[in-house]
Amino acid sequence: HFLLFIHSYLKTKLGCTKVMSSVSDAKDQTYELTAAHLEALSKIKTLIGPSGYITETDVMQPHVVDWRGIYKGRTELVVYPKTTQEVADIVKICAQGVMPIVPQGGNTSMCGGSVPLENSPSIVLCLSRMNRIRDFDKNNYTMTVEAGCILQKLQQTASESDRYFPLSLAAEGSCMIGGNLATNAGGTNVLRYGNARELVLGVEVVLPDGQILEGLHALRKDNTGYDLKHLFLGSEGTLGIITAAVLKLFPKPRGIYAAYCAVSSVSAAIELLNRARTESGDCVETFELISRLVMDLVLKHIPNSQDPLGQRYQHYVLLELVSTTEDNHELYNRFESILSKAMEDGLILDAALAQSEDQRQAFWSLRENATESQKIEGASIKHDISVPISSIPSFYEAAWDAVLEVEPEARLIAFGHAGDGNLHFNVAEPETGKTEDFINNWDRINEAVHSTVHKYGGSISAEHGIGQLKREELVHYKTETALQVMQKIKTALDPNSIMNPGKVI
Questions:
Q1: Long-range contact list for 96-100, CB < 8 A, 24+ apart?
Q2: Does the model's pTM come out above 0.85?
């Protein structure tokens, strides 16, 4: 019932007619397939062969419903190319028939960016079969990989060769690197290594007319004109299809030390971050802020979860230091000293320092199950925002005050990558009250949070992208000039708007 209501609400209030419930009357909404569309579908089937596509409605379901269950679309065909040339040939056919294409990897988008629209003909081009590691250059600290590689596999491959690929996020066991790059994924290690964009040296892209942009350069310095790869990193498949990339690798960490700390305030957390970076020689890899309600929900809904500390506190930090040298003892001692001094100064109220990898993973379980536990708890309005790190404490207070003016009984589920300024500032429905009344305040709560983000010079999408979810809001927070430039780029590369239509702009 909640999904039915939220879909109805989004369609009515946000003008988002593409949003459909998986149990709604999507079958009643039809579109016309032109002769050109039918010809394109026939050519694609002939090109790829029976083992390379599916058309059965029930089998295609996982490809047309987003991870959060908010968006449901329709597609005429899901196709699984094995090579870049096959992708190019399919795109050429679609370009000739003006058939929209939705590129898809693991379909873990949080904003509906990887599923087709409901009221427009399209094919889903799934890159899961393009999963080869084409090259591994240990001395150059690079690997060249195809878009369908699972992120976790790439992490493991690097580790087996004594190297480290630092992109890490909760969906790493199912998300694919092509989607990570198309959304410029963030994750837990941005503080030390940067977003996905900063981990890429070169890309191979199939353009909307079927041309292949061959840019798999493993160079750290190349000033021969425009750096074209940045057009496609973060474009969410609207400008072309990333089929392969050259990724940066790093020395494999020799020691990782984790502490779960109760901090006296959000301001204290930021001061702890500053000290940890300075006093460790900038060895901080992870700095995650977690509110008490997040802890409560994880303990309530996730079996075998345990509170590492003996009593309740309002704010927690998961802090990790990483060493790349064999002698880790010195960094461990320095970590203990940092925590001890912060406790003496009242920044830390209590702390547990992991004594084993199992204990470290237990700390991470509390953080990584934040999203799943709130999904079980009930309705929440999610905000993936970023502000300058120095502004986090004042933003946190101002944004929550603004939300409470709209819904005095709302609950704050705040957690995220405070070390890089990114918070998942989610608002949960009151413990008592009607879900419908809460969802009726969707617009006002969004405005309360996003207008505060804008006031502090932040972004309404830190790492999840725009997709369908934030497309209409983007026009309120991006300058007119910036939107015009984005549209000009889109029109120049994709004049018929066949690449992931209805997303971003």
A1: 96/36, 96/40, 97/34, 97/36, 97/37, 97/39, 97/40, 97/43, 98/36, 98/37, 98/496, 98/498, 99/36, 99/37, 99/40, 99/41, 99/123, 99/498, 100/497, 100/498, 100/499, 100/500, 100/501
A2: yes
